[in-house]
Design a protein that fits this description.
The chain is 23% helix and 31% strand. It is α+β, with helices and mostly antiparallel strands.
Length: 343
């Protein structure tokens, strides 16, 4: 951002009070045609922070696309104090193929940031995105879903040891925050490293628009806008309960110890108690059933959707809650189902 509030990128600028839809070239196909990502930049009438909202760094993770599009094109942003850089589809080649990775040698765009102009195709694409649309921002929200075949409840992943990142993570107002450094090359990790606090929002499954989760994420975006003063009328939300999962919490991906077909008995986001059966591994004759039980009481953050597994495939992601939070979740879920909580 320049001092007069103009947003500039290589090839253009957006003045305060202006909005621009553009298709920005980040690579070229085998035919020599441009590979262009859609970008919407909304520079508010009033000054304020610049926030990027990005999605589909993994090309088949669609929920975030709708979140970014609705913020950019359906929200009334007439009184916006700040600038939004909306990047609904980062990984265009993966999106076209409806797959997670860039089709070129299956590169992971979300391990290629901040990128480099004289390097691999993935890093060149990452560099174009990063230099023009990430580095000029003050904060960032990067939307993802679970990997194909699995689903997860909406949660934020953030490096909570960084105070600015932690503030952003809390501002989103999700019930669950998973504290992790992230990996080298991840958008959130590399953006934070250059002074752009960024968190990942995980929500649902690939290849779908899931309305309930999209609405929940939109509430989170509004809450972030309230925290940083982008919208005067918005308020920071409190999700009712919150847990920050860090090294102090037990957490595990429960994996299948046999190949088979899975009968899942528990839902994404539900509390399961120690010893409770989460799912059953079955064979084609339904004769050799293996019960998979919760090793500890915890919240099912993620579960399998595609019900077939090899030995070693993940079945569910279980995290332990602090006793106080667990009691609140028990009460909430017993109200939801109309049954007594068992403890
Ligand atoms: Zn992803």
């Amino acid at each position: 951002m320049s001092s007069d509030g103009t947003f500039t990128y290589n090839g253009g600028k957006v003045l305060p009070g202006e909005r621009q839809n553009l298709r920005y070239g980040i690579s070229e196909t085998y035919l020599g045609d441009p590979v262009r990502i859609p970008v919407t930049i909304i520079n508010g009438e009033h000054s304020g922070p610049t926030i990027f909202l990005s999605a589909a760094a993994h090309g088949d993770e669609l929920n975030g696309i709708e979140v970014v599009r609705e913020v950019a094109h359906e929200w009334d942003l007439a009184d916006l104090a700040g600038t939004l850089v909306c990047l609904p589809i980062l990984n265009v080649p993966g999106f076209l193929a409806q797959q997670r990775y860039l089709p070129i040698y299956d590169r992971d765009l979300n391990r290629s940031f901040p990128g480099r102009e004289d390097s691999t195709s993935a890093k060149r694409m990452a560099a174009r995105i990063f230099e023009n649309f990430i580095e000029p921002c003050d904060y960032g929200l990067d939307f993802h879903t679970s990997t194909r075949g699995r689903t997860n409840m909406l949660h934020v992943r953030a490096d909570m040891s960084d105070d600015d990142v932690a503030r952003l993570a809390r501002a989103f107002g999700s019930k669950v925050i998973i504290d992790s450094d992230g990996s080298s090359g991840m958008l959130r990790t590399e953006a934070a490293a250059v002074g752009v606090p960024t968190v990942t929002i995980e929500m649902g499954e690939a290849h779908r628009f899931q309305r309930g989760l999209i609405d929940e994420a939109l509430d989170g975006v509004e809450s972030v806008f309230a925290e940083y003063g982008l919208r005067a009328d918005a308020t920071v939300r409190w999700p009712g309960w919150r847990t920050v999962i860090d090294d102090g919490n037990e957490k595990t991906w429960i994996r299948a110890d046999a190949g088979g077909i899975v009968d899942m008995h528990a839902e994404r986001g539900s509390l399961v108690t120690r010893g409770e059966r989460i799912c059953t591994l079955t064979d084609p004759f339904k004769s050799d059933n293996i019960a998979v039980e919760a090793p500890f009481t915890g919240l099912l953050v993620g579960v399998l959707e595609n019900p077939v597994v090899y030995p070693g495939n993940p079945l569910c992601h279980l995290v332990e809650l602090e006793p106080r939070v667990q009691a609140v979740v028990e009460r909430e879920q017993s109200v939801d189902t109309g049954t007594e909580a068992t403890s």
